[in-house]
Amino acid sequence: MREEKPGRVPALPGSAGADRPSRFEEQIRPHLGAVQATARRILGDDDAASDAVQEALIALWRTEPVPGHLRQWLLRTVVHRSLHARRSRTRRSYWEDKGGEEILPCALCDPAREVEVRELLDCLDGALQALSPDHRAVFVLRHVEGLEYGEISDRLGVPVGTVRSRLNRARARVRASAAPLDAARSA
User: Fold this and answer.
1) 131 and 163 Cβ atoms separated by less than 8 Å
2) Contact by Cβ (8 Å): 51, 42
3) Domain boundary at 99, 130, 157, which?
4) Separation between Cα atoms, residue 155 and residue 109, nearest integer Å
5) Cα gap 84→152, rounded to integer Å
6) Which of 10, 83, 132, 147 is most buried, most CB within 10 Å of its CB?
7) Residue 59 and residue 78: Cα distance in Å, rounded?
């Protein structure tokens, strides 16, 4: 015969014993009130608390052997299940609330606006391609790369005055290329 360890509740035999459910009930009945109250305090809802207690009891049913400190084990397990249920409920309600919000259209989602932006980008690309390589390099380094005049001068190996004059001419040509678009847009 198996020797019982002191401080441990005897293990429930496998499903072979017809009296397993009644012994299980005998072991958990003294603790159910405290376990249910703990879950109710955490969740604030009797139905959700009952679900958490049921999950803990199912976990206990599947545990072999039954833990020695049954009350502590049940309380710890129901606290974990309750906290998990509360987190899940909070997450679910957050996303359910978000799902009902109206989606605001973005400024670029307007088809007419998209066409305008595409036309402007095509015009800018055409204007840049029409510039000489020297003027294009200065324009791109200043307006795309964000370099200062001195940095552009060092990178291209030309005086700062040359950088300024090339940039001024490049800007004027780009502005002239965009003028038909501005006229069409303001009309």
Assistant:
1) no
2) no
3) 99
4) 39
5) 59
6) 147
7) 10
Considering the domain architecture, whether residues 90 and 130 belong to the same structural domain is answered as no
Query: What is the pLDDT at residue 151?
Result: 93
143 in a structural domain: yes
For residue 44 the two structure tokens come to 């604030």
Residues 45 and 78 in one domain: yes
CA dist 68 and 8 (Å) reads 4
**CB-CB contact of 109 with 147 (8 Å):** no
Q: Model-level pTM?
A: 0.43
Structural domain boundaries enclosing 169: 107-178
Domain boundary, last residue among 99, 128, 154: 99
Number of domains making up the chain: 2
Q: Which two tokens stand for residue 82?
A: 């309750």
Which residue bears the tokens 């249920």?
85
Tens digits of residue pLDDT in 34-92: 999 999 998 888 999 999 999 999 988 888 777 888 889 888 989 999 999 988 888 88
Structure tokens, 125: 């690309």
Report the run of H or E that residue 39 belongs to, with start and end.
helix 20-43
CATH number at residue 54: 1.10.1740
What is the pLDDT confidence band of residue 165, given thresholds at 50, 70 and 90? very high
